[in-house]
Amino acid sequence: MPKISIKAETLFHLGSFQVTNSLFYSLFILAFFIYLAYEYHRQSVSGHYKGLYYLINLVLRLLYNLFESIVHDKIDTFFPLLAAFFIWIIVQNWSGLLPGVGSIMVGIKEPVSHTQTLEEKGEAPSMAEEEKIEQIPLFRGNNADINATLALALVAVAMVQVYGVKFLGFFTYIKKFIDISNPVNFVLGILEIMSEVSKVLSFTFRLFGNIFAGEVLLTIVAFLVPVLASFPFLILEIFVGFVQALVFSMLTSVFFSLAVSSHH
Fold first, then answer.
1. Are the C-beta atoms of residues 2 and 223 closer than 8 Å to each other?
2. Could you give the angle at the alpha carbon of 33 between the alpha carbons of 27 and 37, nearest 5°?
């Protein structure tokens, strides 16, 4: 039976910083994005367009039209972040389905204490340790790591507050949360604060839960039945990856639009 870990495994340390397999894999995805940006800029400057340029333009145009229908005249302000959310999430979701992600294993040395064993034998505990080799995946889908989805959620909700202050002014926007003019408004302000916190939790666990559950499903199916039997589930996960990226970015655009609207 394959080992399934709900948290990302540590590959190595940089000082006290742990580099997990999900973070390590996301660095390759980041390099891929940098390459796409470089190629798009190079072709834009040179005027010699190729298929990649037209593909990126098509995706950006479709996203622009989609988000414009939600945020309207503020699209030029919100679009870079909304498009970044969608493209980053969908590529991370789909890249987690590539062959080798989760199946290429590496051996990591883990210290094992003798203390419990010696106590069971009635001997004095000792701090002596030995090392065992634990097999963990070299790569893990970034959005199957709750730390990554939490980071995305915090950025999204934080930017909701930033845009609210930017367009409405600090005192006007903060009155949404702190209004002591009467008891009803005060209670509504508390509820608004709770709503903002719930957005972080909702974003985090919706994305993490769907992507992690999908990868677990593919792992179990591939282990129990022949490889072709997992193909329909793979198609399903491609669709789920697209839907989750769309839901995250569209909800963020809705929250942006609500945040910059005047409150009455």
1. yes
2. 145
Using DSSP, state whether 109 is helix, strand or coil.
strand
Output the pLDDT for position 1: 58
- pLDDT tens digits for 28-75? 999 999 999 999 999 888 888 888 889 999 999 999 999 999 999 999
Secondary structure (3-state) at 132: strand
Task: List all residues 6 or more positions away from 177 whose beta carbon is below 8 Å from its beta carbon.
Answer: 189, 192, 193, 196
pLDDT at 128: 44
Give the distance, in angstroms, between the CA of residue 132 and the centroid of all CA atoms in the same chain.
32
Q: pLDDT by residue (tens digit) across 215-233?
A: 888 878 877 776 677 788 8
- Give, rounded to a whole angstrom, the gap between the first and last alpha carbons of the chain: 58
Rounded to whole angstroms, the Cα distance separating 61 from 54 reads: 10
CA–chain centroid gap for 61, Å, is 23
Among 250, 255, 152, 245, residue whose Cα is nearest residue 201 = 152
CA distance 79 to 65: 10
Strand-pair category, 17-20 with 105-113: unpaired
Residues of the chain with pLDDT under 70: 1-2, 110-131, 226-227, 262-264
Cα of 88 vs its chain's centroid, Å = 8
The tokens describing 242, both together, are 């697209």
Place of tokens 């790591």: 145
Tokens of 101: 């992600």
